[in-house]
Amino acid sequence: MNRVPTIVCAGLLAWSSLAAGDPQAWRVVPMEKRSALEVPLPPLARVSLADCSGKTWRQAGEIGGSVASASGELAMALGSGGWSLNKTIVLGRSSARSELMIWTRQKRRILFMIWEKEAGTCGFAWGEER
């Protein structure tokens, strides 16, 4: 069996559909870019690091209060922004603990960490899962 006529016919058919402006013809479609992620933070949060490279935490900084109060403020800020808490992992002793939280909104997920730096001050950092 000779496949050359079949291949030539397929090539001519593809070329003619391109020449005719057929909307079903093959074309290269650019990849969808993800929009910049906006994460609402509590009003008193101070951001000291911002990095959009995707290789480290996206933002880091400090929040006043205990881990429990900072976690509550964060829950109110993210909840009002349409994020929902998926999972919380509590680490450490009750007096000096930290929390890892996974928040989701539509198809996006972020990992948020809060830890006690000193009495009345907590550190925070968050990054997006890619």
Notes on the structure:
By secondary structure, this protein is an alpha+beta fold. It has a domain at 46-128. 23% of the residues lie in helices and 37% in strands. It is built from two helices and six strands. A six-stranded antiparallel β-sheet has the order 1-2-6-5-4-3, with helices on one face. A hairpin with a 2-residue loop joins strand 5 (108-118) and strand 6 (121-128). The longest helix is centred in the N-terminal third of the chain and has 16 residues, at 4-19. The chain starts with a helix and ends with a strand. The model has no long low-confidence stretch (mean pLDDT 82).
Notable characteristics:
alpha+beta, 130 residues
Quick summary of this structure?
With 130 residues, this protein is α+β, with helices and mostly antiparallel strands. It contains 2 helices and 6 strands. The protein has a domain at 46-128.
Principal-axes shape call: elongated
Strand order of the largest sheet: 1-2-6-5-4-3
SSE string, helices as H and strands as E: HEEHEEEE
First-residue to last-residue Cα separation: 49 Å
- Residue share in helices? 10-25%
Radius of gyration: 25 Å
Topology, number of strands: 6
Category from helices, strands and their pairing: alpha+beta
State the major sheet: 6 strands, antiparallel
Percent of residues in beta strands? 35-45%
What's the rounded overall pLDDT mean?
82
Number of helices: 2
Q: Which consecutive residue ranges, at least 5 long each, have pLDDT under 50?
A: none
